[in-house]
Amino acid sequence: MGAKVDWDAARAELVPLLVAGLAYAEIARRLGLTYSAVNFRVGFLGLTHLRQCGRKGRVPNHVASNLITDALGTEYEPKVKKERIKRSCSRCRAPFVAESRFLFRCAPCRRVAE
Q: In 3D, which of 34, 35, 64, 36 has the Cα closest to residue 51?
């Protein structure tokens, strides 16, 4: 089993190097780690993903924990709303609005057991 990692220290080391735009291989060389160790730590700490929150009208609950987003000066990206698509039902040919790109039947036809 490998040595335990101080994740606060790992975060403090990684954030400035990621903000500088260095590649994982260069970060690994500077920290004396392997490429896969850097890749794992960045993923484990959640430093590459924009955090999303679906709560409307409230303070986003994940932005404070996303240090890379704050450090790079990028903005919080809310979740994308569902797309509404005008279609005709594949069973009865009646027009309806699909709330997902995977719906091809209107609500009454979906309730009908075939």
A: 64
The C-alpha atoms of residue 1 and residue 72 are separated, in whole angstroms, by 35
Q: What is the mean pLDDT of residues 84-99?
A: 91
Label residue 41 exposed, middle or buried (CB < 10 Å: 0-12, 13-18, 19+).
buried
Could you tell me the CA-to-CA distances from 58 to 37, 51, 94, 104 in Å, in that order? Answer: 36, 15, 39, 34
**Sequence-ordered list of residues with C-beta below 8 angstroms from that of 26, at least 6 positions apart, any chain:** 17
Task: Name the residue type at position 3.
Answer: A
Instruction: Tell me the per-residue pLDDT of 45-91, one tens digit each, with 9 for 90 and over.
Output: 877 644 445 445 545 445 444 555 555 555 555 556 667 889 999 99
> Cα-flanking dihedrals φ and ψ of residue 90, to 5°?
-75, -10
Q: Are 98 and 104 in contact (CB under 8 A)?
A: yes
Helices vs. strands in the chain: H and E counts, helices first: 5, 2
